[in-house]
Structure formats: structure tokens, C-alpha cells
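Form 12-C: Joint structure prediction
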Amino acid sequence: MKPAPFVRHVPRSLDEALKILADVAGDDGRILAGGQSLVPIMAFRLAKPAHLVDINEVEGLDKIADDGKALTIGARVRHAAFHKPVTGNPLGALLAYVARHIAHYPIRMRGTFCGSLAHADPSSEWCLTAATLDAVMVAKSINGTREIKAAEFFDGIMSTHLKEDELLAEVRLPLLPADARFGFYEFSRRAGDFAMSASLVTYRLDGGKIVDARVGLGGAEASPRRIPEAEAELNGKAAGDAAFRAAGEAASRAIEPLVDHQTDADYRRDLVRVVVRRALEHSLT
Amino acid sequence: MTAHTKGSGGDGMKWVGRSIRRLEDPALVRGKGRFTADLPAAHWVRFVRSPNAAGTIKGITAPDDAMVITAADIKGVKKITPMLHKFSYRPVGQPILADGEVRFVGEAIAAVVAASEEEAEDIADLVEIEIEDALPLVDSRAAVADGARQIHAEAPGNVILKGEVKTPGFDEVWAGAAKIVKIDARSNRQNATPMEARAAHAAYDSITGRITLHCTTQMPHLMRTAIADCLGMPESDLRVVAPDVGGGFGQKMSLCAEYVLVTWLARHLKSSVGWTEDRRENLIASFHSRDQYIALEGAFDKDAKLLALRADVLSNVGAYSCFPTTSGVEPLMAMAEMPGPYDVQQYQCVARGALTNTCTMAAYRGVSRPVITFTLERLMDKAAKAFAIDCIDIRRRNLITTFPYKSATGLEYDEASYRQTMEMAVEAINVPAFRARQQLAREKGEYLGIGFATFSERTGYGSPAFAARGMAITPGWETVHVTVDPSGFVEARIGSSPHGQGLRTTLAQIIADEIGVPPGMIKVVHGDTDTAPYGWGTFASRSLVISGGATLIASRKIRAKLLKIAGHMLEAAETDIVLADGKAKVAGTDREVSIAAMAREAYTQTHRFKGEIEPGLSESGTYDPPGTFSNACHVAIVRLDPETGHVRIERYLVAEDAGRIINPMIADGQVHGGVVQGIGNALLEEIVYDDSGAILTANLADYMPPTAHEVPPIELHHMETPSTQSITKAKGLGEGGTIGPPAAIVNAINDALTPFNVEIDTIPATPQRIRALLRNAERAP
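Section 2 - Result
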């Protein structure tokens, strides 16, 4: 459990980081941010990057900014930054609630929001958040800046459409309407483990009926995504047990379940049914 | 939350029975413990392990300039071949490095030697192994099926041993039973997961030619004997040291091939060589346990009195047999101890060990008892249901209450408190209040359950018990040397090898009471074959009973000698002298002499004794007891989420009787730690192999020991039934905590599942398994 040999680069500026990344990208170079996922898989030698571009000293990547339309989160922002709401918009409370479910406290002190997205673990709470809220990923390289929609960013288990010379420099999360409600629920066998299914929902109530429903699902398929079949069961309905159950059933039917030794396809569908409904129930509390 | 019920007392004892702080802890809590991996070495080893479960090695390719040792380099080293002379045991040998054939994923094929662990791992990455696959046999039932490929030439049908027992009146009683109740129990595979994985460090002394092997082991002397045997070297040329050991739990009481190889390398290189196992290696290639199928039937009369038990035990022992216990350790214990705490005189059992292409099985805390207790206690709950009586009631009708009791397998149970501890637990948990709460919860769609486990635990057994298994290596006795040095300080050298049990403290308490010095002046020395007397180490809930007994014997000799010396020095009759507070006093007078002064006299003024007292103040004690039975009742209250299958333990209670308690705090700690491991066994921990024999749970995210979140407060109640089979009156309790939880928790889950009409008889009772049962029930018409 010793990583294979690698060269660590410690750039001080974004330009320097992008230049080094361009130089080493073809030679199996990877970005090191919080290291909470990459370093363990390096220890197992499941990843053997020849170069690590350590961005922890890069200036300007630690910003969190609310410009009235979106919340911008820089590549060095740690999970723990969200323990308290970072904005008065309902998004702040949403992120604070979700953040508490990420692994354990020491991991939240080091792991980063953007690093989690770039790592693209199917169970990641932040990947689920980005997919549910239609985040915009801002990728930078020496060739310029590219914006990628969340729905076009994830590419299966631990894979994204980032190019190898691109750094996920920041992520923009659209602010929620002032009257937005949210709910979140995840299931794991032990506290802090990867979720075996997780759901994040947002919606508004208009005359007692659900509008603008978003139902995000993580940990159940190769990539987190919104489940339109579940959203269709909610929009126009009263927020309550009947609609919530129908949404859970719809999500359970809609998925292509991930299968592993502790979760067969039937069990994954069971969990999806439950986490979607419970996330919706949480939105009422 | 501990209620200590003192059954003894009034005998003037002073240190025994007190929760004094552990003498071990000041170093450990300051991070000053000394562990094997802390030692510097000139060379480090990385093992290249088989990625295939079964097959023939066709080629090994290593970088030209690398030092890579394979079987071809160590032709003179003997295989590890443990032996039983009973039960149709087939001796199978384990080569130190795979020789021609591989038999499980993780088997060591080559050892890379380099100047650092990092370099060794880099080189190991470049070693290419070509293996021609054979069909792997992973499950024990597949391995013993007709026509299965034979894994070892020596073991036809892949059966390494078969034990059979049947009492003379069995058939008649069975035929006359009012009701037969059956369970097919499945216990999946576990890894003991000590916090410190395996490690070895061997250093060659160029002056004497001796090797000092530091390793993380529970039995240093036996390591010396076994490794010297394998290497064909004099035992006196090998010193084995167990420094601080970060947990053993049985995984470290077997010889590992890696330690033999590290010792060989140090001799070969005439240098120092280190190996530190990583967690992945530990999970795939250290020893596993508890992989058993047990079919158990109980024959009851019309009043739910158990008349007879019939068991079929199939234990998956993995690819090889562990030394010294052999792979009989699980199946034979299951056979001998299946009847547990119940009065049942008719018994039939067949117990087999199946060789498979999986990691070798060895002892893990409790060995077979967590599995047989789970099976038997599930059977009792099923029987209660079949007779429509309460699960406590059926136990009241069947628990042993008269002692000594001779079991159907010939074990003699000394006095215990099976019934009393259960009643203590029943009262403490308040069953009627729980049932009311359970009913209210059900009405709200919430599912609570309560489960009981009563068990007996054979502890502190000496050589006769092991000899009954026909072991070529028969452990049992212990020797302790107690010395009062000329300054009056005491040193006890012991053959046991504690690694977290607190024996340095508890033995000091025993000595303190005998010879009248405080524990702070008593050092217990262990774990070094150069300084400790030959002994069997620490395992099987034996050390406090057996080493404790030997300590008491030696201390009484010291005491007798001190009384003689005091009689001389104080010119008084020995019977008038009291030893206490570091002094000998003549009762009723102010005449006294310090033990330090007597000790000085015993070495430096021996001429004054006029030949009536031998010089020096050093005595030896050896103890080899028959064994004594601890017992306990565990109760779990669980909350089941039927939609996810998740189980949360709301309350956990233990009523335990381990005879006289030497140090209540240490006893509580043992029970706490054991219960936590038992919770893992019941709900979480499982080594999963796929059909190809690869392990899917090779890290601590996939193999899941409980964390603090999954462990409820554990409520302990003690009774003390002083043992008549142990001179300290203490019984063993190292394993008890681990034995009860699978039974108590899974019984509680099944109680919660009652409204759904499904039952789970598999451990761990994972949410996936519980949901599968419920889903099938939901789909049923």
C-alpha cells in the first residue's frame, strides 16, 4: 500500500498550473486537490499517475461567490466550507444539509467540492447535487475556458468529459427561487459510508401544487442524474404521500441499477423507491 | 452502567476485585508502544501474491537486477504440515512460497527484497506470474460434492477431517419425540481484523549467529518451535519477541508462512529483514474464520423439553491447515460444544472440514461458539414458536441448573449460572415494558424486536482438553517464574503473551495479595523467548485462569518463604506473621520488617539462615487445569426498517458470569470489545468471494467492521460464581462478549420480522438479505 513513484508539481498560479498540466497530461498527469479519493486509490495502486499537479497553493481557487444568479465554487473549496450556509439563498441551507452526509469530519476538512465532481464517484453527494441543480462546470486549459452542463459532464463510473489537460477550475450552481423547498435522503449501512442510493429533490409550491420539480438520484446508476419520470409524477400534484410514493415508484422503475456484492438489482430498486420518497418527505420538515 | 454483584468477599483480599488502572496504559496512551513495524531494517520484503484462486504456475519473470525469492530458492525449507491423530484427519502441507500450484487468491508466490518497502512494492509490480487456471472451488458444499476437483492429493473428496459422535440411546429418544424443530444456519466468512496487521522483523547477529525475530504473535514460544522446525535450525539459535501487539483475536495464534520466510531471509542475507503487511493483504491472505453451514435439529417432548440434538457441521477451512490447532479448530469445537447451556443427553453430530480455494481458516475470538450459539439459540426461538410459548419460557425449561453436569459429549460443566444470568437480564431489560412499546410501534408501522442469547463458554482449559482432539502439538499448561529481587521489587516472567488483555495488571493484583506488595512494584514480563519460560501464549480465554493459576502457585511459594524468613528475622512463629503493605508484621505486636529488607537478606545474608532456608527469592509455578465454564445472557433490542432492511441496535445488555473477577474494569473492557466484534459478525462483516475465487471485500470500505455509530451503549451486569476448577476461582472471559451478539441480534431481528412471516438464519443479517426475504413475502400471493 505504497503509491507507485510520481512527480509532484506545486504551481502557485492558475496559469502555471494549466501549463504544467498541459505538459504532463499526455504522461498520465492528474490534479491533486484534497486527495481524499485519489490518494487512497494510489495507495492501492489502482491509479498510478506519473505526475501530480498539486493545486493547493494556487491563488484564487478558494473563492465562493454569490452574484445574485449563481453560486460560484472554486477548485480549492473544501466540503467543510459548506457546514454553515454560504449564502442566504435556500441553496445555502441545501448545501449545508447535504455536506453533513459526506463521509466523516476529517475527510470533509480536506476533500474539495470540485475534486469530488472531477472524481465522479456515482455515490458522491456533490455529483448528485450538481446533477440535480444543473450546475455548470467551468473547465480551463492553456487553450481557454469551456463550460460544460452537468447533464453532459458525467460519463459513467469515475469518468467525466473533462479533457486530460483541463482543470475543473470552478463550478456554478444556479441559485434557487426564494420559495424553493428541498429534501435529501441517503442510505448506507454504516454512518459515513458511500451511499447505496441517495436522492436530492427541489420544487416550489404554487397554489398548493408542486411546480419545477427536480428529482436527482445518486449512487444507483453509473452517473447521478435527474429522473424525469419521477418529476412528472410530482409536477401539478399536491405535496404529499400519494405523489411522493408515485415518484419513488417511477424512479425505481426508470433506473439501470448498479450491481455490487451488497446490492443486487432488486435491492437497488427497493432503495431508490425509498430514498426518493424520503427525500420528498424531508422537504416537508 | 455496571452492577457488580459480589459473590465472594470477606476473605481479606485487597487488590483482587478492584478496578485499578492498567499498568500497560501509560506507554500506549502516550503513543510510546513498541510495535514490530517500528524497527529499522536493512532489507524489506514485499510478497507477490497469486491473483488466481487455483492453477499451475507456468512462469515467474522478474527484473534482472531484482532480488526475488521463489519456491525454487528455498528447497530445504519444510512445509507447514499440522497434524491431528484423530477424526480421519488428512495432513496437507503448505509450502512457504507456492510451489508449482496456487490454491487461493493471495497465496504468496514470490518475495521481493529491496532496501525500502516502497522499492520492494515497485519491483513487485514488475514481477509477472503466468498461471494456468484450474476450476476454483470456493464454496464448501461445492468442494465436497461428488466429482469435485481434488485440491490436495492427500485429501480425497476435499474433506480434511470428519468427526462423528452419536450417543447410545439417540435413535430411541429421537423416535419418541413429540416435535422436531429444524434450522439451516449459514455463517459467512469473517476476518478478525486486528488493528495491527501482521508484521515480522528478523535480525541476524554476526557474533553468535542467532536470529532475533520480532513479530506480532499471540504465541512467541510456539513460533520459535515451528519456525526452527521448518528451517531445521536449533531453537536456541532463534529468539522470538512479541513486542506490543495491536490485537490478535486468534488471527495471530497460527504460524504464517511469511514469518518463516522473513527468518530464512535474515539467515540467508546475514542481515536484518522486515515485512509489514498492508490491510489489503490482511483481508485477503491472513487467516479467515466462521465460514460454516450448520443444519441442526432438535427433538422435543410435548412440554418443549429438549431431548436430543442432531447436527451436521460443514466448515470451510480454506486452502491449507493452520498450525498448531489444525483446521479442526472450528468443526471439532462445533461438534464438542454444540449442546451449549442446555440439558440434553442425546446427541448426534457429523462435523466435516472442507478444503477449498480460499484463504486458510484459523481461530477467531470465540472460534465456533458465535456460530453454534447463533444456530442453537435460533433453534430455541423456532421451537418456542412451534410450541406457542415464550422464548424465555422455553429456555427456563431447558437450561442446566444442577452441577457438576456431564454433557452428551462428555464435557464436565462446573457450577455456573445459566438460569440466574438469564433472569437477571430479563428483569433488567424489562420485557413487559418492551412488549408494550413494541405493540405501540407496530401500530405506527415501526418494527422493534427483542432477542436473547444464553450460552456456556468453555474457558481456561489445559492439556487434557486439547489432547482429546489428538493434536500433534498439544497446548495447555502454563509456567510462571516469580522473583523478588534484592531491592524488594517483584518480577513475574510468564509464558502467556498478552496483547491487550491487561494481564500485566491482573497478574500483579494476584501477586500483590499473596506477598503483600502493591501492584506498582510488580512487573510482569512476557513475550520474549529469551526471558519468559516456555508457554503457549494467549488465546482461548485461558491466560487469566491458567497463567493466573500458575502465578498464584508461584506466589504462594514466595509467600511461604517470606514467612519463613520473617520468622527468622523477627524470631516469631510463621503462623503469627501477616504480610501486608510491603511488610511482615508479627500480629498483635509492633515488630515488623520490610519485604525489601527480607529480600536483601534472602540474597546477601543467607548464612544467617543456617541452611534452613534456600538462598534467593525466586519460585516457579505450573498450572494445567481441566477447564471451567463461563456463561452469559445477552439481550438485544433492535429497530428494523422494513423498507431498506436496515437494523439499528437500540439497546444491548449483557449479564455475565466469569467467576471471580480480578479487575472489574478490565473485565468490562473485554466484554465491550467482544460485543462490538459480535455486532460486526451479526450485521456487517463478511468476506465475499466471487465465483472465480476473487475477494470483493479487500478494503475497509467493503469489509465493514462496526464504527462508533453502529455500536449502542452496552449495559453490563455481573454475577460471580467462583470456579471450582480454577485455583484463583476466576473463569475466562476473553471471548464471551463475541459469542452472544449474532444470536441475540438475529433473534431480535426475527422478533421484529414476526408480522411479516419471514425468518432470517444467515449471518451477517445484511439489509440486502433482509429485503430479499421481505420482497419475496410482498410478492407472494
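Section 3 - Comments
The first helix of chain A runs from residue 14 to 24. Chain A has three domains: 7-54, 64-174, 181-282.
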